[in-house]
Each structure stands twice: as C-alpha cells, then as structure tokens.
Amino acid sequence: MTRGRKDAQKFIAQNRAASFHYVFSERYEAGIVLRGSEVKSLRNGHAHLTEAYASVDNGEVWLRQMHIASFSAARAFPHVEKGARKLLLHAREIRHLERAVLREGYTLVPLDLYFKEGRVKVTLGLGRGRKAHDKRAVLAEKTEAREALEALRARRDGTA
Length: 160
What we know:
By secondary structure, the protein is of the alpha+beta class. The chain folds into two domains: 10-129, Small protein B (Small Protein B, Chain: A), CATH 2.40.280; 130-160. Helices cover 34% and strands 35% of the residues. The chain has five helices and nine strands; from the N terminus they run αβαβαβββββαββα. The protein has a seven-stranded antiparallel β-sheet. Strands 3-6 form a two-stranded antiparallel sheet. A hairpin with a 2-residue loop joins β8 and β9 (119-129).
C-alpha cells in the first residue's frame, strides 16, 4: 500500500519570513530529539519557528529558541518551552555545516517543522542574509507579479 504525499508529511509550522530575510543555497532534512510532551504538543500544532535558529556546537547541531507550548496533560514533568533541542544529521553533513557557518559566514535557519511517517523532521536552510536593497527588489518583483496576475484575471473575467 502506498501513501500519498499528503499522508506522508503533515506540516506543523513554517518560517515564512526566512525566505524574505535570507537567500538559501542548500537545504537539509534533520530529525529532532524530543520528549513525549513536546511531540503531543506538536501534534496539536502548538509550535513557532519565528525566532528559531540552529547552531553547531562540539560536532552536534542544536535548534535554539523554537517555541513548543506546554502540554496541559504533562503537568508532572513539563518540558522547557524554548529550550535547546538536538538535531540528528549525518556526521558528514554536520562537518559541512560547521565549515560553512564558521568559515564562510552562512546562517542555519529552520524553515519547516513537519511529521514524516510519524517522526518529527525539520528542514534547515543554509543561507546568507539579504541586504535591504535586495529585500526591496524582492518586494517589487512580488508586487509586479501580483499585479500582472490580477490584470490577467480581470481580462479573463471581462471586467477590464
């Protein structure tokens, strides 16, 4: 029995602002070490990636400042809402990321948090920050594309 893409991946949270602030050259899928109460909270969709970032420390990749709301039924052993969480990657990938972050000035940004075949995964983007003029150019391109699409729709509907 084959599963469709919709069944295989269920998005929990996305960092939409990241693509506006950074230009990504590579993306990595990583597992994440979580406690049971964290997973239950994620199943309810209570997570935010807006302030989150990843760092490489002593050959391990850590996800920091990701907010996972506390789970109400886990009052006896609650988890830290913005604690550091270890990411699971191959050693070769960790060495590559460490070299890129330390020597080449890249930043590791979490882009997506999702379930894949019952396990929580995070997509990491390796990117550089955009300059202010680049951000203005991106906004101009989006506005131009939106206006062109609106004009096409208006012409199709006969309102133009």
